Amino acid sequence: MARSGETGVGGEDRRGTKRKSLADAPREDSEDGAAGSGAPEQPRPAAFPPGFSISEIKNKQRRHFMFVRWKQQQRKEKLAAKKKLKKEREALGDKAPPKPVPKTIENQRVYDETIVDPNDEEVAYDEATDEFASHFNRQTSPKILITTSDRPRGRTVRFCEQLSTVIPNSHVYYRRGLALKRIIPQCISRDFTDLIVINEDRKIPNGLVLSHLPHGPTAHFRMSSVRLRKEIKRKGKEPTQHSPEVILNNFTTRLGHSIGRMFASLFPHDPQFIGRQVATFHNQRDYIFFRFHRYLFKSEKKVGIQELGPRFTLKLRSLQKGTFDSKYGEYEWVHKPREMDTSRRKFHL
Amino acid sequence: MVGKQTFPYSLTPPWKSPGGSIMAASARWNHVWVGSETGILKGVNLVRKQAVNFTEAAGRPSREEEVSALCWADAAESQILIGCANRTVKSFSTEEGKFLKSRCCPGGEGTFRGLAKHDGCLITCVESGILRVWPEDSSEHIKELSVGPSVCKMRQDPDRPHIVATGGKENSLKVWDLQGSSQEPIFRAKNVRNDWLNLRVPIWDQDIQFLPDSQKIVTCTGHHQVRVYDLASPQRRPVLEATYGEYPLMAMTLTPGGNSVVVGNTHGQLAEIDIRQGRLVCCLKGLAGSVRGLQCHPTQPILASCGLDRVLRVHRLREPRGLEHKVYLKSRLNCLLLSGRDNWEDEPQEPAPGPPEETETDELWASLEPVVSAAGAKRKQRAPEAQPGGKKRQSLGAQAPLPPLCK
């Protein structure tokens, strides 16, 4: 057996190292298997030359063993340090220093100069007179056209139907191989305010083009993690016809504001609170999570929510000024991975 | 969710924007003037790292006055002419930092596509193709030319100010002489030959530049081509054609040296193209949106670019190539003017306010001792100052606003 075989020369190393820690006074290196310290001697504490690291042991089994032992030691030390800290905190009681806040990527986010200051007049004017102003001034009410890329498969079709139950006043049309640039003037003449195109690839929806219609911006998103209603666990009944409330989380930068306003202009301006439905667009680390819930206040502080409706994740790829024209349109923001994704702590939305 | 604010000083220094306040004395030292879609003219000082907004007397931004064209009114760069979307041309003085006058230039439809000043007259060209020459103090134009529909750009030759060039979508490059009285251009470009499928190549001239010291004109098109025309040669077709990228080229500028041009497209890609060989020299990165304005300094390799992503960037073209300044300016930027002066860094320091003169009140303050709790300290301090302080206090007794502090 390997173990018994090692008792001859190397075994005492292991035995020796088992009993003593590594930080012993250096002695003759017994790792080379020198037969100097022979079996009849007392197993001496194994000593290592300074600057020795476990990775220098060539024998995999021994190396693994040493590593496991080192790890256990580290864990013990860490646990001991934690216990000590906890005891100190309890001893100090109220005078204990506040707990240090753990670093997260959101905490460490690189400061973005485009983050909108709520008191900023220029940005407020810019937003008050942009393409969505007519929706927020209640001059137009949204009417959405939902369509897909050509020849959609079952999953995409079902997703579009569910999306149209979630967004009030929306209509699903089959795309009969028509060019978007031809569809758009027809939509404008029929008073549609927004166009949603779900792009499909290999039977799953993977892209979303959202175009605000009279001359508004067009946003192109990559869609992932699409879950239809039947795939959602513990879901409620079908969404009703009431207009939902809209929650937009964490759209802080100027670009985020534009996208947030774009999402908000999909829904009617006055939500019907009787329906108790809420659509949430939550932005975190440049990914936008869409969820649709029904809520119920059980008491003043407790609320129960039920997830209805589809759920999906979006990532913005480009925002183009003007209606859909990917070739000749002017882009307000284009995602360039090699230039913009260099830092893990920098986000744009 | 803003984490700790870090300012890497080399690239993005903290920019202060005293919005609305007119910094009259320092307006002349601004390096870049940018016009935005909200009608605000912004002056940016790169050395002091400040960006200032200038609006007309009303002080409110207004989208009807969206700035569509900017040009210097004179070679000394003391006045700027601003063409707005409501067909007014305003003049702004950089010395004083305020708007001087505005005039309305009706005729034709669309926004201004070119502004120029020649011989005391203002030359304007609008999108529908009406080019008019307006004298200084009259509201009637003295000359009118019809350039053709859908004009994208009109540019004046800096060496010969009576020559202008116009071009647009399906409107080929035409060069006009304003001194003559004819309604025909002196040069009309011809379209290139049909392509390899024998289809007509569409025309879409987006920006025009005159090459200095020669009779050549460079244009960039919406079909990602850069073309050079030579007026001296009998050939009306372009002499050189180079392509870059797959997106329409929106703006173009000449580099110092005259060998190359820098173009920007709707995806925010900037490229320097050598026009003698027709090849790409380098690309500059950083922009995220469509490039609307580009200008290079006449002698130094400094390039200013602005676009729809609301940021003004200043790049350095060589030794070392890269981004130097980046300023976030909150509104979509339409056009810019880079000051061509050479003393970029040297800016005379404003005379520091002289040491305030010693007035009698100051002496009174100096004589009053600080209130100290220990009596001994007070007595020590009082001894040397009692006499002069006392006298002063008597003279100012009626005026001293505060009760005497020492007992």
From TrEMBL, chain B:
Query: What's this protein's name?
Result: WD repeat-containing protein 74
Query: Its GO biological process terms?
Result: blastocyst formation; ribosomal large subunit biogenesis; rRNA processing
| KW Phosphoprotein (keyword) present | yes
Keyword annotations for this protein?
Methylation, Nucleus, Phosphoprotein, Repeat, WD repeat
| Pfam families xref list | WD40 (PF00400)
Give the domain of life: Eukaryota
S-adenosyl-L-methionine as UniProt keyword: no
The cellular component terms of Gene Ontology attached to this UniProt record, alphabetical and capped at eight, are: nuclear exosome (RNase complex); nucleolus; nucleoplasm; preribosome, large subunit precursor
Q: Subunit info?
A: Isoform 1 interacts (through WDR repeats) with NVL; the interaction is independent of RNA or pre-60S ribosome particles. Isoform 2 does not interact with NVL. Interacts with MTREX; the interaction dissociation in a late stage of rRNA synthesis is required for appropriate maturation of pre-60S particles and depends on the ATPase activity of NVL.
Read off the Gene3D superfamilies from this record.
Answer: YVTN repeat-like/Quinoprotein amine dehydrogenase
Cellular location(s): Nucleus, Nucleolus
Ranges for region Disordered: 342-407
